[in-house]
User: Fold this.
Amino acid sequence: MKIRRVPKLKLYTFLLSMPVIDVGINQILYGERLWQEWPLWAISFPLVYVLGGLSWLARITASTKVEKKFPELNQTWIRLRYRLLVSLVSMATATLVVLTIYSVFHIGGYHFRPSDIWRGCLLALSVNVLFETLYDADYAIGRYKAAEEEKEVLRQASFREELDTLKNQVNPHFLFNCFNTLSSLIHEDKPRADRFLNELSKVYRYLLKNNEEGLSTVESELRFVQSYFQLLQTRYGDGIRLEIGPYERFAHWMLPSLSLQLLIENAVKHNIVSKTQPLTIRIDVRDQQLIVANNLQRKLAAVPSSKIGLRNIRLKYELLQQPSFTIDETANSFTVALPLLPDGVGMGL
Assistant:
């Protein structure tokens, strides 16, 4: 295994722990002589370091295989037991190899003592068991983060899939209503039908473009809504009114595209719209929110609702990982507050 492929945590802990183990092993080998004969340091210290490094490489290679065999978070205790077993075997083997080499070659005048085996193993294990536990904790945290990221990716993909489905349902619904109006105008007032068709083409061009882009500025959305309102007025006449308050301070802030159109369409769908009972829609900007309110005058006959428009807007805010809109309904009014986003916030919708 190449050193550059070793995780930084394992490399750093080796560099920190090995000097301690090295000094301890040499103390076992030579006792008080270690502090009296400096040549022992020059010969034995680097030798133990090299042998310890080879043992460490073998141990982390085995630990990596354990991670691959038991990768899941619910296998943490199994993985940790195997890690400790690997550490025990490798430390016992490494200690025995060091003592054998030193004894056979009489390095520094060392002679084998059976008690040195358990003393060396105890020293190495006391350090490495701590680090093996740390390695597994680091691995488990990494797996947890990866699992959470994977969940988030799947959640985002699910949102996008549902959002695309909702987009395809919203646009045809809007177009169908406009074609019904256009069909009536062709028979009643052809010049007016021409103007309506011209406005419809402008509105639908914007609708298609911005439904794909995901975010629009407050200024562009309000400009579009005013064009969209012209279509509604052609259909309902004085039965519908639109009031827009000052918004220049937040003109370049962002919100999910077509949110206003969806809310206005929703208000028209569920409320009585007539000259005697006009539907008034008011749009204001307050506290970094776009407030869309209408007087509540529900139709006598319940209107089937799939809540496609509201789900569409909510999903866009969820994809942004931003707080969603709030609804305030009273006996006389229905209000939706859309959070505005600073210019520069983006999302791939």
About this structure: Residues 3-149 form one domain. The chain has two domains: 3-149, 189-339. The beta strands are 215-217, 240-244, 254-256, 279-286, 289-295, 326-329, 333-339. The longest helix spans residues 115-188.
